[in-house]
TrEMBL record:
GO CC terms of this entry: Golgi membrane
Function recorded in the entry: Responsible for the 2-O-dephosphorylation of xylose in the glycosaminoglycan-protein linkage region of proteoglycans thereby regulating the amount of mature glycosaminoglycan (GAG) chains. Sulfated glycosaminoglycans (GAGs), including heparan sulfate and chondroitin sulfate, are synthesized on the so-called common GAG-protein linkage region (GlcUAbeta1-3Galbeta1-3Galbeta1-4Xylbeta1-O-Ser) of core proteins, which is formed by the stepwise addition of monosaccharide residues by the respective specific glycosyltransferases.
Gene this chain is encoded by: PXYLP1
Organism: Otolemur garnettii
Signal peptide span: 1-23
SUPFAM superfamilies: Phosphoglycerate mutase-like (SSF53254)
Protein name as it appears in the record: 2-phosphoxylose phosphatase 1
Locations listed in the record: Golgi apparatus membrane
């Protein structure tokens, strides 16, 4: 009887899954956008992402410390799926995440951590012409989804921060989003929750487990830097509050970075700009070749009654992603509705563009020069920590997708996806207690250990059984090998930026 009941239960579940699968094939035709998305969200929420495959230990050594791979979630479809990619990009806070930050053999001591983040979910920067703006509320409400147990306390703590030390022009920015109808580019409640979660995750690993900072930490032990946008400052504050709840405002000092590349006084680089111009030309030619994309833009332009060029210039995918991530219907006019089929075509083209960008290498040249200043600053800080200096042992850069993407490319992480909302890239510095003079690094992207996918440490694993990469490898890469990768005779950043004949 028990066997029969189990069999009937399995049969019923199989029937239900078959029904859902069939429904998903026709949901965009049969249902309005919110319902079809609701079904997709239900399935993704029911089967959480598993970013790290777990295998049994071999020879007494944990596979987590030995095997370094860059896995995809087990739910990833066998072929490129624009809807799956868009859901990944949204980074819905309810999705479970297993991470590898802070994992190391017991005889390694954590010395310093450098964190690079993209701001969290935001309101669009562009509006689809002649359509109503998506109605997203940018006030923070504790009992509204997405929820975080520290959300209400975060708002309360931010209201006390008017006397904090912020480098101009950060002083004039609001410390948390607070508009009933979001302003353009404003951080949403989703974006705040994403970084509260990031901060809490890092707190559990780096403070509770590894005691990176003492309980009486000082101002000079933190390095905080952000661009002059409210969404980056607020994202940095949300992560910082999750990391150091109820921190003392008198100890906080945020530096302002005027460039999205975080290049400080080294931003003038003519060769980098030439690489960028060639990359933009490549993007333009790829769009011209995509007849389906051109038809899609033409259809959307007719719906909103504007010239196709004007619609394309308004970057409609930015607004469409907001509708998608917040489960809001795409806009309609008397001429019809922008639909999921339009969104899929544009998103598919973005995926194809990323693939060709990796193949053509023009973006790599731009990235090597664009990321060098911030990577050079990072290794200098890590070297000081390796020497025993205690200042700036936790660094946080609150940035943009156009900050993280060049860094990922420069490091040789060709498999890494374009930075999603609230993406995080982390550099960990470890000291070998058995050989105190030796230091090693780990690189993690969204919780996945990608150290041995970097160009500076890809071959090290073949020669050494150690689960980390020597700090010297990263130093040599930034100081020398980044210029070698440009196929030039330059041996320093200035010469590489001003070489003739490119």
């Amino acid at each position: 009887m028990l066997f029969r009941n189990r069999f009937l239960l399995l049969l019923a579940l199989a029937a239900l899954l078959a029904f859902l699968s069939l429904s998903l094939q026709f949901c965009e035709r049969s249902f309005p956008v919110p319902l079809s998305l609701a079904i997709i969200f239900l399935i993704f929420d029911s089967f959480p992402f598993h970013l790290i495959p777990v295998s049994t230990a071999k020879n007494g050594v944990s596979s987590k410390s030995r095997k370094r791979i860059m896995p995809d979630p087990v739910t990833e479809p066998p072929v490129t799926d624009p809807i799956y990619e868009a859901l990944w990009y949204c980074n819905i806070p309810s999705v479970a995440e297993r991470t590898m930050e802070g994992h190391a053999p017991h005889h390694f001591k954590l010395v310093s951590v450098n964190v690079f983040i993209r701001h969290g979910d935001r309101y669009p920067l562009y509006v689809i012409p002649k359509t109503k703006r998506p109605e997203i509320d940018c006030t923070l409400v504790a009992n509204r989804k997405p929820y975080h147990p520290k959300l209400e306390a975060f708002v309360s703590h931010m209201s006390k921060g008017s006397g904090a030390s912020f480098e101009s022009p950060l002083k004039g920015l609001p410390l948390y989003p607070n508009h009933p109808l979001c302003e353009m580019g404003e951080l949403t409640q989703t974006g705040v929750v994403q970084h509260l979660q990031n901060g809490q995750l890092l707190r559990d690993v780096y403070l509770k487990k590894h005691k990176l900072l003492p309980s009486d930490w000082a101002t000079d032990q933190l390095y905080l830097e952000t661009t002059g946008k409210s969404r980056t400052l607020q994202s940095g504050l949300a992560l910082l509050y999750g990391f150091l709840p109820d921190f003392d405002w008198k100890k906080i000092y945020f530096r302002h970075q005027p460039s999205a590349l975080f290049c400080s006084a080294n931003c003038y680089c003519p060769t980098r700009n030439q690489y960028l111009e060639k990359e933009q030309r490549r993007q333009y030619l790829l769009r011209l070749k995509n007849s389906q994309l051109e038809r899609t833009y033409g259809e959307m332009a007719k719906i909103v009654d504007v010239p196709t060029k004007q619609l394309r210039a308004a970057n409609p995918v930015d607004s469409m992603l907001c509708h998608f991530c917040h489960n809001v219907s795409f806009p309609c006019t008397r001429n019809g509705c922008i639909g999921m089929e339009h969104f899929k075509v544009i998103k598919t083209h973005q995926i194809e563009d990323e693939r060709e960008r990796r193949e053509k290498k023009l973006y790599l040249g731009y990235s090597l020069l664009g990321a060098h200043p911030i990577l050079n600053q990072t290794i200098n800080r890590m070297q000081r920590a390796a020497e025993g200096r205690k200042e700036e042992i936790f660094a946080l850069y609150s940035a943009h997708d156009v900050t993280l993407s060049p860094v990922l490319s420069a490091l040789g992480l060709s498999e890494a996806r374009f930075p999603r909302f609230a993406a995080r890239l982390i550099f960990e510095l470890w000291q070998d207690r058995e050989k105190p003079g030796e230091h090693a690094v780990r690189i993690l992207y969204n919780g996945v250990d990608v150290t041995f996918h970097t160009s500076f440490c890809r071959d090290h694993q073949k020669r050494s059984p150690k689960p980390m990469c020597p700090l010297e490898n990263l130093v040599h890469f930034v100081k020398r090998d980044m210029f070698v990768a440009l196929d030039s005779s330059s041996t320093n950043y200035y010469d590489a930026c001003h070489r003739e004949g490119f």
